[in-house]
Design brief:
alpha/beta, Rossmann fold, two-stranded antiparallel ribbon, 9 helices, 11 strands, transferase, RM_Methyltransferase
Length: about 300
């Protein structure tokens, strides 16, 4: 669909360079079966001005943290600096995204969307307002280096103070497009409405312990917010209850969702407007999808 540049990463995965809203507007209704995505939470951090500063190491809205216990810390968006207008823009964007996704998803489709403790309430409410049913939250237990810092410029004066709690978890919203009738009827017609169990005897659970992305994956795909395959594959697999359908990632970035879908045998489409990430995904898709469980 559409004339945007694209790469068929495999027979099962395609990456399109496109504005999300423009691309979704060109799709017929009931085209996609699930969404798994890690969006730019504050939007402004991926505006050209601030993104260019990130790439040059100058910061902008991106905070360049100092080393901690000998570990070099990756840049983090400073969501606490968002203005009221930027917060309103964030709310409006995710509401519009929810409207666009509801039209192209089949009834009963699930949406898994990453957030963070600072912005999840706002983001999740915007999606509910657009018409999605909230079906819970998936909690990724992950020890990060976000937060826990002393007052900037006064670390020695206030050694007993931290400005924010050290983050040890990451919330993912779980949403579903409403459907008429029973779950069994919807599963028969569309193949959606529930989540795929881990095994016949073990349901999918809403807490996953998963450490930060390790060196090998970062070498393959040096994206600023890369999620690890050992986590993404579990989420992607759960999103299609019968293992049939098309997974969509609106913010495809380095292609990690597409690689996870390929690893579990699903069809997948991703979009992103950043051509440099498209190029990164072309190189990273094969190695990421080929990683074995023991390598993760």
């Amino acid at each position: 669909m559409g004339g945007q540049p694209r790469t068929h990463l495999s027979l099962r995965a395609t990456y399109v360079v496109a504005d999300i809203m423009d691309w979704l507007a060109g799709l017929p209704a009931h085209s996609l079966h699930a969404v798994v995505t890690d969006p730019p939470y504050g939007l402004i951090e991926y505006n050209r001005k601030d993104h260019d500063k990130l790439k040059s190491g100058r910061g902008g809205v991106w905070r360049i943290p100092p080393a901690y216990d000998g570990a070099k810390r990756r840049p983090l968006p400073r969501f606490t600096v968002l203005s009221p207008d930027e917060i309103a823009e964030l709310d409006s964007f995710f509401s519009d995204l929810g409207d666009a996704l509801l039209r192209v998803l089949v009834p009963g489709s699930h949406l898994f969307i990453a957030s963070n403790p600072l912005l999840s309430t706002l983001t999740f409410h915007a999606l509910q307002r657009s018409g999605f049913e909230k079906r819970g939250e998936l909690i990724r237990l992950v020890q990060t280096l976000r937060g826990g810092d002393r007052p900037k410029g006064a670390e020695d004066e206030f050694p007993e103070v931290c400005m924010m709690a050290r983050s040890c978890w990451e919330p993912w919203g779980i949403f579903r497009k409403p459907f008429p009738g029973t779950a069994a009827q919807n599963l028969r017609r569309w193949g959606t409405g529930g989540l795929r169990r881990i095994t016949n005897d073990e349901p999918f659970k809403d807490v996953i312990v998963c450490s930060p992305t390790r060196g090998r994956e970062r070498e393959i795909a040096p994206h600023p917010s890369l999620k690890p395959q050992r986590f993404m594959r579990q989420v992607v697999r759960a999103a299609l209850p019968l293992g049939v359908g098309i997974i969509y990632d609106p913010f495809a970035g380095s292609g990690s969702t597409l690689a996870a879908a390929a690893a579990v045998g699903y069809l997948a489409i991703g979009t992103d407007r950043d051509e440099s990430y498209h190029a990164l995904a072309r190189a990273a898709f094969g190695p990421l999808s080929a990683l074995k469980v023991g390598d993760l």
